Structures are given as C-alpha cells and as structure tokens.
C-alpha cells in the first residue's frame, strides 16, 4: 500500500498526503516515497514554466510559473505521530542519511509550501510541519508536541537546530522541549501556525492560500533564499555530532565521579 498520495487540486497547486495507517509513522519507506513525490512536483512545476527567470517566457504558460505544495494527511486523526523510534535506532546514521535529506528538501522546497495540519503532529511529524512556509491547523483534534523527553530520547542535531530557529522565545522553546502539548489557540498565539480553521476547511483553505500566493515563487529563487537562511540547520545535520542517549550520559557520569564514592556531601 502506498504511503503517499500525490494529487494536483489546482493547476498551480500540488498536494501530498501521508496515507500510512494508523498514524503516518515516518518510516524509511514513507520518507523515500515522500522524496520521490517532491521530485515529481518540482518536475511538473518546472515543466509549467516555474523557475524561469524570464517573465516573458513565463507568460506563455497558463499558470505563469506559479506553484504551491499543500502537505497534509489522508488519515482522520493524525497528521503524523513521528518516527518509528526503535526502528530508527537500528539504522546507521538514520537522521543524517534517511530523515534529514527529506526534511531539508521540504524546508528549502522551491515552491510555496503549506502544511494543512488536520490531526495531531508529534515529534518528527511536528518537525515536518515546521519545515513548511505556512501552517493551517484544524480546530478539532490537533495537538502539536515534541514528546521525545517522555520516552528518553535526545533530539537529533537537525531537530535541535530547526526548533531553535522556529521557536526563538526561550520560554516557548523550553516548554516545547518539555513536551508541552500545544493547543491550536496557543500555537496561533506564539506564531507556530498561521490560521486555525474547522476540520473540513483545512485542506480547502490551504489550497486557496497556495493558489493565491504561489505566484511569488515563479522566478525560481524561493528555494535558494531558504537555503541561505536555513544553512545552519543543514550544517548541524551534516556535522555527524554523536547524540548521546541516557545510558551514555549515566555511564559518562559514573566514569567521571567514580561509583566507589559514597554519598555526596551536601
């Protein structure tokens, strides 16, 4: 069964929906299909005049080079519940070589991107939503949460860099890292989403936004602009800095202080 559904609801708007029951876990097969779908969208956009710097040439196309991508879920409850954590641990350099390339591709996509968050977005799912240029969320069931701390997982380098970029307020960043389940009104207030709408209007309004604003990316520089702005996130991902887990931290602590020592003198 495919993990991704790719459609074109408007001549200048493409839609990618995650369709992997029960909760759109971001397993390697899904990420691979997502990468292929992003390539397919960009091919069609460029074939329709997108990315051509010459406005006279773009005038010859019906959409004049406009382009937007709506990124959403085909499931009723979850946008994405994040990674298969245990499975990801079994793959060497999972983040640097499997997840992060797709994350970076979405973050710097040359089309305008709109996340239509029509369900819960947790951990890696929240990260993918934050990679989009705009975010519209349902007024129904739709928490956003980075819950890694609840199951003892550190953040990979790419997640840390993206969150620091997207959530500059120290208190909001702290609360996010402590697994706060952000409600829709809270997300709107702190600027992590642009609009809260009724469940049955999420995708519709995302498509309308993409159709309205997509002409801005026609000359082809939008993706390049984002590459420059978000370069530190890519560099953090490609640093291959080892990310320690709780057992590593415990071992390092006892190696430093010595297990043979008695209770600390307070």
How are the SSEs placed, and which strands pair?
Layout: E1 4-10, E2 13-18, H1 28-47, H2 55-58, E3 68-73, E4 78-80, H3 85-89, H4 94-107, E5 112-117, E6 120-122, H5 124-130, E7 134-138, E8 144-145, H6 157-166, H7 170-177, H8 184-189, E9 195-197, H9 202-213, H10 222-229, H11 231-237, H12 246-257
Parallel strand pairs: 2-3, 3-5, 4-6, 5-7, 6-8, 7-9
Antiparallel strand pairs: 1-2
Task: Kindly describe this structure.
By secondary structure, this protein is of the alpha/beta class. The protein is 42% helix and 15% strand. Helix 6 packs antiparallel against helix 11.
Short description:
This protein has helices at 28-47, 55-58, 85-89, 94-107, 124-130, 157-166, 170-177, 184-189, 202-213, 222-229, 231-237, 246-257, and strands at 4-10, 13-18, 68-73, 78-80, 112-117, 120-122, 134-138, 144-145, 195-197. It is α/β, with parallel strands linked by helices and 266 residues long. The longest helix is centred in the N-terminal third of the chain and has 20 residues, at 28-47.
Poorly predicted regions: none
Shape: elongated
The CATH homologous superfamily is called: 2-enoyl-CoA Hydratase, Chain A, domain 1
Average of the residue pLDDT scores = 94
Strands, count: 9
Task: Give the strand order, joined by hyphens, for the main sheet.
Answer: 1-2-3-5-7-9
Helical residues, percent: 40-55%
H and E string = EEHHEEHHEEHEEHHHEHHHH
Oligomer: single chain
How many domains, as an integer? 1
Percent strand equals: 15-25%
Instruction: Output the structural class.
Output: alpha/beta
Biggest pleated-sheet summary: 6 strands, mixed
